[in-house]
Amino acid sequence: MPNPFDAAGSDNEQPTTDTTFAVPLAHAAPSAPDSVSSEGTSTAAAGALVNSATTCNSIIETTNVVRLFGDFVAVSGATLSVKEGSVTALIGPNGSGKTTLMLMLVGLLAPHSGSIKVCGFDPVTQNHEVRSQVGWMPDQFGMWDTLTCYEALVMTGATYRMSPEESAQRADELLNLVHLMEFRGKQAHVLSRGQKQRLGLARALMHRPRLLILDEPANGLDPRSRIELRGIIRELAEQGTTILISSHVLAELDEMVDSAIFISGGRTVAQETVDEARQARSNWQVRATDRAALVSWLDSIHIAFAQNTDGSVLVNIAGEENAARFLKDAITTGVPVVEFRPQGGALESTYLALNEERR
């Protein structure tokens, strides 16, 4: 059976990113061909996914959303719910439909079928209302290269009908937030890719959006900037901003998000909180100063294990409570354990498990 995580196509198969997101555009929902369905996702199944994931005060709700590019089905029956005030990851392989779905959420693409509600509004028929409450940062944010960083932010404020005084104050606030104040008077073309990413984040935040949607925001950032980005995102969440973020760096998402939505082949295939993912993960790496003692103890309690080349062993333990009990028993028995940790992050474990189930 083919692996659905190797889906054909790319998230890049869409119109050029609109860099004037603040200005409402006219969209009419394209008509879906009769032959298009949700590709195996039944209405009942989609409804069950929403019911299991939905909590009170959801800021994003989609049901059976379908989007095509010619004959290619980019999104096929996507159903999801995002709670207001949360930081939620959208996870999937290249070509799974993440970017296309995000473009529909912000009103830059219209679905062929299905329903979308963002901040209580339909992005197709109430496009202006959605854009006024959503900040959008695409993977590659277009820049006005001849404008300074400060001017770019002030102009963005003007497109949201902010007063000159408010725009000026907000621009300086955000330049400080994203650590670009030293480039305040520099033209955007002198910025590195990582610095442009940070300026793009500032632009997306200019109008104090209720919902922030970020597509691969860490691309091009150095390690320090990635750490600072995580801090900024958590700070925004604590202030009440809802954040939907896509990234392929799952270990970073573990430290950044509250929950995750997994998408494959244009369909939402799972949704869970990070705490649930941590409880579900099962592969743990153990290393002891006396490897023979560790192996002997594992044999005596009939726990299967795999030996790694670095001298550690890999054991399968269901959940963190059982893992804690395992470690306590090992130490009590006298096994000199010096390292005990999960193999991979919580979200990575879920991602790989979904991958394995669909081989």
UniProtKB/TrEMBL annotation:
What superkingdom does the record give? Answer: Bacteria
Matching SUPFAM superfamilies: P-loop containing nucleoside triphosphate hydrolases (SSF52540)
State the InterPro entries in the record: AAA+_ATPase (IPR003593), ABC_transporter-like_ATP-bd (IPR003439), P-loop_NTPase (IPR027417)
Q: Which GO terms describe its molecular function?
A: ATP binding
Where does the record locate the signal sequence feature? none
Keyword check for Ligase, yes or no.
no
This one is known as ABC transporter ATP-binding protein
Protein family (similarity comment): Belongs to the ABC transporter superfamily.
**Keywords for this protein:** ATP-binding, Nucleotide-binding, Transport
Q: Which organism is it from?
A: Populibacterium corticicola
Record domain ABC transporter: where: 60-290
Q: Which Pfam families match?
A: ABC_tran (PF00005)
